[in-house]
Amino acid sequence: MNDFNIKSQTHILVVDDYLDNLTLLTMILNNLGYQVRQANSGKTALKAIEQMLPDLILLDIQMPGVDGYSCCQQLKTNPKTQDIPIIFLSASNNAADKLKGFEVGGEDYITKPFLLEEVVARVEKQLILKWQKNQLKQELKYRKKIEKKLLESQQILTQILNTCPDGIAVLKFIPSRPHKPAYFYCTFINSVMENLLKPNQKRLINPKILKNSLDIFDSSLFDYFSEVVKTGHPFEQDLYYENSEIKAWYSVKAIPHGQGILIIVRDITDRKQCELILHQTNDFLYQQATTDNLTQISNRRAFDVYLKQEWKRAKREELSIALIMIDIDYFKLYNDHYGHEAGDRCLYTVAQTIRQAVKRPSDFVARYGGEEFAVILPNTERIGAETVANSIQKAIHDLQLPHAQSPISSYITLSIGISIQIPTSEDFIILIQTADHALYEAKHQGRDRIQSWSELLE
Ligand SMILES: [Mg+2]
Which residues belong to the signal peptide in this entry (predicted)? Predict the structure, then answer.
């Protein structure tokens, strides 16, 4: 909008009981582009103002009836009109009169006879001041609105932060300086975090969070947090904390925030306890599912899983793997003679004896079925396998478990078949078949002996 347009929208009210002044001022201001209205008394001026508010008033002081001072007073006490700038026009150059003009609220004072240029300059100055005042008012109004919204947002945020289940804190990082170590400065902490830290950790709430305050929780925490500031990568870890009053698990998260970090801490003790119970239950169930109830050694299912796993490993590493199959000789006769309960006790004793005879942690003993047992020996060659088989056989011999019905001995004896393979295919059945075949041969040749599959091939 250009200057003329602004002026054409600016309304000036000229008030003077002297017609010549009224005419002259109207003409001058009209020529400059302003909208001008006239009033020849205080009374008509107030009426004109009531009908339409002007942007500025040129007001004569000495008028019959309502004079300029009282007209001004009335306008300045009315909220609707109090902001309209008033420039007094007066023939009096008396300082007291001028002072009164300002006291009743006038913005400026021009002495008659006036210089037209002076009137124009003072009018324009007042209009600019009014415009600037308006701008300031608008800005103030806008700022108040923003402040109100900000306050509302802050209240909502505070409510959320104080009612959410997580402890939240904002820490500013102060890097190390000569003779002064780096530290964190706490700029915000919510009530949940304060409660989490009670009663013994108040040091952490203190503004300066030094390394040893964080060390209470975890000796690496200060370094972890510093790394978050340096790298911008978030940190997340579950931490266990214990003192004389608290035993608790916390989930700790730290994310970069400005010159420091935002920390979110949650008490996860209940969840951790559930996990622990679940873990123990799983362990128990796994144990149940993979253990043979009668002999308390691994069952056939566990055997299959372990053999598959070790067979794969042996193939990958091109190593030999041995399988020992064991059968209790004439066990049916034992059962028939001593009864099933004694038979079960015998199976248990033999199973536990075999297990004790096998030494390496990677060696695996299982009940294969009935009175048959199997031993998996990873990374084992013929001599090693035969040594283990001999130890097993000797251990059973040493037990001297009576077997009155055995045609070959007075005691329990074992037939043992061994197979050693370096896997060439995924299928481990070849190992079971050859060990089984060796066992069959051991029985066939009179029982109470060890037969190796490779021996049969020689
Ligand atoms: Mg007059």
Answer: none
